[in-house]
TrEMBL record:
CDD domains: EcFpg-like_N. Its cofactor is Zn(2+). This is Formamidopyrimidine-DNA glycosylase. One of its GO terms (molecular function) is zinc ion binding. The lineage of its organism: Bacteria, Pseudomonadati, Pseudomonadota, Alphaproteobacteria, Rhodobacterales. Monomer.
């Protein structure tokens, strides 16, 4: 499932072919994804210029010249493919339409942007730009982890009195938006905090360590994604998926990478999700 860095990588890959350009033709091939698609969606997109392509948590937001904003969520298996335009050093011809190509945008400049989603947990919606932030999917979100609204003071206040484990609290999108299982595991490992620590017991000193590590882990992943946009692996025009090595995630039974630790990575299940951690480094 794409997490925040993957979605940011998709956004950066789409910027040169979408931002400032007009959607010459939109093709919508089915009435619904996870939920029904907006009425007359193709008509409402065609002829619109993309003023800005933004990201909020794991949602892409395209502000259109006619005053509407297109919201896109990749869901579990949604993929964005770009063809027919210069992408780094590669030129991609339009491939033959695939079975799960649900929305196709032909952009001014020659690029074709295709949303393909085999499992259809993705979503798209159109809403007035002026009230985009109050869309039901966006209104419930906490601050962006890379934004100014997320700092030590906020985190301590938001966790105060919480009797849930820190792992579950950081996955709570009301508390901080866009953090997923992989990057929370990596963050807690680097911070030396047990995933079982009760959220309300996190002190100001620990919060002061945790916040910059969250930003660092996400920034490193976004950087890796940015590199992938220039990489040969993107030659098929698919955006957002990249090779990334993790220090603790998905390493159950393997040796801890901390020099001199000698511990073994453990996996426990919390709130139905796997937590990977080193019992020595994260007591
Ligand atoms: Zn260790």
């Amino acid at each position: 499932m794409p997490e925040l860095p993957e979605v940011e990588t998709v956004r950066r890959g789409l910027l040169p072919v979408m931002e400032g350009r007009t959607i010459l033709q939109a093709q919508v091939n089915r009435p619904d994804l996870r939920w029904p698609l907006p009425e007359r969606m193709a008509e409402r997109l065609t002829g619109q210029r993309v003023l800005a392509l933004r990201r909020r948590s794991k949602y892409l937001l395209a502000d259109l010249s006619g005053g509407e904003t297109l919201l896109v969520h990749l869901g579990m298996s949604g993929r964005m493919l770009v063809s027919g335009a210069m992408l780094g050093a590669f030129h991609h011809d339009h491939p033959a339409p695939q079975k799960h190509d649900h929305v196709v945008l032909d952009m001014e400049g020659g690029a074709r942007v295709t949303f393909n989603d085999a499992r259809r947990f993705g979503a798209m919606d159109l809403m007035p730009s002026e009230s985009a932030e109050s869309h039901p999917l966006l209104a419930v979100l906490g601050p962006e982890p890379l934004g100014n609204g997320f700092d030590e003071a906020y985190l301590v206040a938001a966790l105060k009195g919480r009797r849930t484990p820190i792992k579950a609290a950081l996955l709570d999108q009301h508390l901080v938006a866009g953090l997923g299982n992989i990057y929370v595991c990596e963050t807690l490992f680097r911070a030396g905090l047990s995933p079982r620590l009760l959220a309300g017991d996190l002190g100001p000193a620990q919060a002061a360590v945790l916040v910059p590590i969250i930003r660092e882990v996400l920034a490193e992943a976004i950087e890796a994604g940015g590199s992938s946009l220039r990489d040969y692996r993107q030659a098929d025009g698919e955006l957002g998926y990249f090779q990334h090595s993790f220090r603790v995630y998905d390493r159950e039974g393997q040796a801890c990478i901390t020099p001199g630790c000698g511990g073994t990575i453990q996996r426990i299940v919390q709130s139905g999700r796997s937590s990977f951690y080193c019992p020595q480094c994260q007591p």
